[in-house]
TrEMBL record:
Gene3D superfamilies for the chain: 3.10.450.50
Natural source organism: Pleionea mediterranea
Record-given protein name: SEC-C motif-containing protein
Domain of life, source organism: Bacteria
SUPFAM superfamilies membership: NTF2-like (SSF54427), Sec-C motif (SSF103642)
Annotated Pfam families: SEC-C, YchJ_M-like
YchJ-like middle NTF2-like domain residues: 30-126
């Protein structure tokens, strides 16, 4: 990954995009911004931030240590926000695809997540059902600036890296 670009895919520097939100020097303005900062927190293995931004009523058994371990066990590489919908003044949903590499194979986690704002602070709650999930294709495709990769396919060492750094996979995220 190009260390200047934010992990969330915004093409803005991490230091001014998600890092201030993760470090709590800036509040996320909406659910999508919280979602993007949480993806960046997974990429940087920041379980404390992930735990603190997970709504207390939905933490069932979660700890910061468990979230850190989970983040370290997964190589998150790309985030695609499909939609951000306001469900009310204090509630939103974000439909996203989070791409990761597992055993050299590109995978995708697609989720529509519920977020709630309490006293101006957004929290992740839980996944909610995807609309038209039955029409979801078997293979999802990740389109970056100059190439397209399919889910569940092994990534060639000489292929462009799916994190969209512009480098070959073997020199970047391998």
């Amino acid at each position: 990954m190009n260390k200047l670009s934010c992990y969330c895919g915004s093409k803005i520097a991490f230091s001014v995009c998600c890092l201030p939100v993760i470090e709590r020097t800036k509040k996320p303005e909406n659910a999508e911004q919280l979602m993007r900062s949480r993806f960046s927190a997974f990429c940087t293995h920041n379980g404390d931030y992930l735990f603190e931004t997970h709504h207390p009523q939905y933490r069932t058994g979660l700890t910061a240590a468990k979230l850190t371990l989970s983040a370290k066990q997964t190589q998150w590489i790309n985030l695609d926000v499909v939609s951000h919908n306001h469900l009310g003044e204090q509630e939103s949903s974000v439909h996203f695809k989070a791409w990761f590499i597992e055993g050299g194979i590109l995978r995708c986690m697609e989720e529509n997540s519920k977020f709630i704002s309490i006293d101006g602070q957004w929290f992740y709650c839980e996944p909610i059902a995807l609309v038209n999930n039955t029409s979801k294709p078997n293979l999802l495709q990740l389109t970056t600036s100059d190439h397209q990769l399919e889910e569940n396919k092994k990534i060639s060492r000489n292929a462009p890296c799916p994190c969209d750094s512009g480098q070959k996979y073997k020199r970047c995220c391998i």
